[in-house]
Write a structure and sequence with these properties.
Blueprint lengths: L7 E4 L5 H14 L11 H9 L6 E6 L5 E9 L9 E8 L8 H15 L4 E7 L3 H9 L3 E12 L2 E11 L2
Parallel strand pairs: 4-5
Antiparallel strand pairs: 1-2, 2-3, 3-4, 5-7, 6-7
Helix pairs in contact: 1-2
């Protein structure tokens, strides 16, 4: 059985963008984790990597052969100065690697990255029906702030979003 200790996390590089796009596009098509509607390309993800703000970071989780199994991002919550100590994180794990503890490993690494970047508060927005992701984030120290009813609209359906937060020490 593969264990999360068999995987490592590092900053993303341009060579990773094809895998990042593949994993993200699969999540987009699953319709349970992001409000994007169309798959993304490696070129788009490469551009995203190039245009990260100084206090933003994309990380990848890789197996022993350096194959990308998932990715996560720490990004500014808002450009408004009063929110400068608040960030938002998102993570996506390749479906064949789910259930191995990689999501938790990635989220905890994103906590560390957020602290290193000077953030005090992390926000996540999760489809309210995605109970697995909500449970994962609870194990990483997040608490539920509330549910935004019918804030998203995907495939002719209203989507409720759970807002969760974690204060960093």
């Amino acid at each position: 059985m593969t264990h999360s200790d068999d995987f490592s996390i590092r900053p993303a590089v341009h060579l990773d963008t094809e895998d990042i796009a593949r994993i993200y596009s699969a999540a987009i098509l699953e319709r349970n984790a992001t409000m994007l509607l169309d798959p993304v390309s490696a070129k788009e993800m490469s551009h995203k990597l190039d245009t990260l703000a100084p206090r933003e970071s994309i990380r990848v989780i890789t197996d022993a052969t350096d194959r990308v199994c998932g990715w996560g991002i720490v990004k500014m919550y808002s450009e408004r100065p009063g929110y400068r100590l608040t960030c938002e994180t998102s993570l996506f794990i390749d479906s064949q690697f789910r259930g191995k503890g990689l999501g938790k490993k990635m989220q905890l690494a994103l906590h560390t990255t957020a602290q290193e970047l000077g953030f005090h508060h992390i926000i996540v927005r999760i489809w309210a029906a995605n109970e697995t992701s909500i449970a994962l984030h609870k194990t990483c120290g997040f608490s539920l702030v509330g549910i935004q009813k019918e804030i998203g609209h995907v495939d002719q359906k209203w989507i409720d979003v759970a807002v969760m937060q974690c204060l960093l020490n």
